[in-house]
Amino acid sequence: MVMGPENAADVQAVVKARLEALSSLSDVQQTATIEWRGQRRSLPVIDVPIGLVSYNPDTHRIRAQRSLDPAKEQALIDHPFGDVAQNYLRDLLKGAPEDPAREDPTFTAL
Q1: DSSP H or E segment with residue 100
Q2: Rounded to 5 degrees, what are φ and ψ at 107?
Q3: How far is it, in rounded angstroms, from Cα 12 to Cα 9?
Q4: Is the pTM of the predicted complex or chain greater than 0.85?
Q5: N-terminal to C-terminal alpha carbon distance within the chain
Q6: Mind listing the pLDDT tens digit for each residue in 20-33?
Q7: Which residues, including other chains, have CB under 8 Å from residue 77's CB and lie 6 or more apart?
């Protein structure tokens, strides 16, 4: 079982505060509709400082590429929210699926 990032409590506090602030607004709020556990849900959109977020070490997007670097894969297993693992995840997510060493043009466009 993967433990959460060390700053999980900070992230939760920021998200809670921003969601509470939304409830006090009378303006139309931005939402995003997602598929979640077989159901479509419309969720409020909030801004979160980029320094608070972490990559999901269990993402299916890079499962096949994780083993390209055994030492970094071990870092993902041992310390999934540590700097080595998070940097590896970033690089794999940016990489083209057929060649992770090359940046994916769709990532660049995003």
Answers
A1: strand 99-103
A2: -70, -45
A3: 5
A4: no
A5: 31
A6: 998 888 787 889 99
A7: none
Residues contacting residue 92 through CB under 8 Å, at least 6 positions apart: 62, 65, 66, 68, 100
Q: Which candidate, 18, 87, 21, 78, places its Cα nearest to that of 46?
A: 18
Residue 52's CB: how many other CB atoms inside 10 A? Answer: 14
Q: Tell me the β-bridge partners of 34.
A: 41
Beta bridge partners of 47: none
- Which residues, other chains included, contact 18 with Cβ-Cβ below 8 Å and sequence gap of 6+? 46, 47, 48
**How many angstroms separate the CA atoms of 28 and 81, rounded?**
36
- State the average pLDDT over residues 44-64: 90
Spatial CB neighbours of 109, under 8 Å, sequence gap ≥ 6: none
Token pair 């303006």 is at which residue?
A: 27
- pLDDT category of residue 62 using cuts at 50, 70 and 90: confident
pLDDT tens digits for 68-109?
999 999 999 999 999 999 999 999 999 988 888 899 999 888
Give Cα 88 to chain centroid, integer Å.
13
